[in-house]
Amino acid sequence: MSASSRPDAARRTSTMNKRTSILPKHTALFIDPSALVAQHAGFTGTQPITVGPNAVLHPHAKVSSALAPVVIGENVVLWERAKIGVGMGDSMDESKRNSVASMASRTSVRDSSRGEGTVLGRNVTVEATAVVEAAEVGEGSVIEVGAYVGKGCVIGKFCTIVAHCVLPANTHIPDYMVVHSATEYRQNRTLLLRPEVLEMRTNFHTTQISTFKKLVPNQVAKWAS
Q1: Are 47 and 27 in contact (CB under 8 A)?
Q2: Residue 56 — φ and ψ, nearest 5°?
Q3: Polar residues compositional bias: what residue ranges (predicted)?
Q4: Nearest-CA neighbor of 125 among 205, 49, 216, 65?
Q5: Which residues lie closer than 8 Å to 75 by C-beta, 6 or more apart?
Q6: Chain-centre distance for alpha carbon 67
Q7: Distance between CA atoms of 5 and 9, rounded to whole angstroms?
Q8: What is the pLDDT of residues 107-162, one digit of tens each?
Q9: Whole-model pTM?
Q10: How far apart are CA 103 and CA 81, in angstroms?
Q11: 190 phi and psi, to 5 degrees?
Q12: For residues 59 and 61, what is the distance between their CA atoms, to the nearest angstrom?
């Protein structure tokens, strides 16, 4: 390539400036200053998104308010490629969408009494590649790797939705349950009857967040500006 075929320096600088200026900015995003938002985590949509104190979004975690508001509570952790918000299930692969449809057709669920939107309570963990469209996930609950929690679901406190579990829309799960499907779950009596174990689990979660803040670069200023 000849030197004359390359754009001059002024033109290259202009192009770079233009790319920087069109980075998307969410217009209804409220992030607590103590939150950790890693590089490549993202927010989309036009309805409100609230991120509470000490919440952690790992790289490529996505939160969408395109269809309804989202509230991420205090100390919530979203792992890599977790997806939160109504409509995020549309991005699942065809086999998992078929599984959701099949489960819904075979399962009797109650209509949700919650309004539109998604609320993750205090100390909730959503692990890698999990998708949560739920109306509410209660305090201390864990959504494990690759699980799907459908629109309008209400998950109680200190539940575990096991890896790759599929919960169709409007499923209601009581507190302290280990959930394998909308019809298969058992009570976690260890957490229910031994408060010292529950305290240890909560302390471990808090320690994890402190460690993340030391190791993961925080890009929260990109979204706060």
Answers
A1: no
A2: -130, 125
A3: 98-107
A4: 205
A5: 52, 53, 54, 55, 122, 123, 205, 206, 209
A6: 15
A7: 12
A8: 444 444 445 899 999 999 999 999 999 999 999 999 999 999 999 999 999 999 99
A9: 0.81
A10: 24
A11: -65, -50
A12: 6
